[in-house]
Amino acid sequence: GADIIDIGGETTRPGAAQPIDEAEELKRVIPIIQAVAKATDVPISIDTRHASVASAAIQAGACIVNDVSGFRFDPGMRDVLVSHRPVAVAMHMRGTPADMQQHTDYQHLLGSVICETLPAVLDVIDAGLPKSRVWLDPGIGFAKTPEQSLALIRDVDKLAALGFPVLVGPSRKSFIGAVLNRRNPTERVFGTAAAVTAAVLKGARVIRVHDVFEMLDVIKVAAAISEAALTEGRN
Hints:
This protein is α/β, with parallel strands linked by helices. It has helices spanning 22-39, 51-60, 77-84, 109-127, 146-154, 156-160, 174-180, 189-201, 212-234, and strands at 5-8, 44-47, 64-67, 87-91, 134-137, 167-168, 206-207. It contains nine helices and seven strands; from the N terminus they run βαβαβαβαβααβααβα. The strands form two sheets. Strands 1-2-3-4-5 form a five-stranded parallel β-sheet, covered by helices on one side. Strands 6-7 form a two-stranded parallel ribbon.
């Protein structure tokens, strides 16, 4: 039931070890992208911070670039996005995967997320990538405390008001574990369902999850409730 398959070769979760080199990342992802592209027409997303990996992935069959650094890690990413014009996802993150959780001091959380994400986004748009092909991701759990992650889901509608589709990735994350006292990520499915519902009701257009079969039902019902509310409002 997935509408997009997101493929990545480098873990960037909080506390991740040293990054792998681009050659290893290419070795991990390109054969998989090629195989998936032959097996299905479902759009493929490449989850990478590296311009060379994004370019090779697009040539192999990907049509979405999901950059956790918000186009800021690799200066060459702008040229790749402008040249190939994929859908480009700019996620908010501070620091590196190894130290991001040391950078959770925000005077104004949502304002900081917007102000720290938009400059690189607008630069790419000014260089030629259509705004309609850019999505924003507030970076749930990336340089965010559990409380901050919850607050960002609550404020998805305010982020969406900027005019970009919003992608939210709450699946199995530690903020859910903190709320439920569940250390095992596989025990956070129902908590994920609650976060997914809230994100959809607040206007998220794309939801990134592990448990696709279960979350598809959650999304369909949440979207139906949201549409019913909009219809009632119009009447």
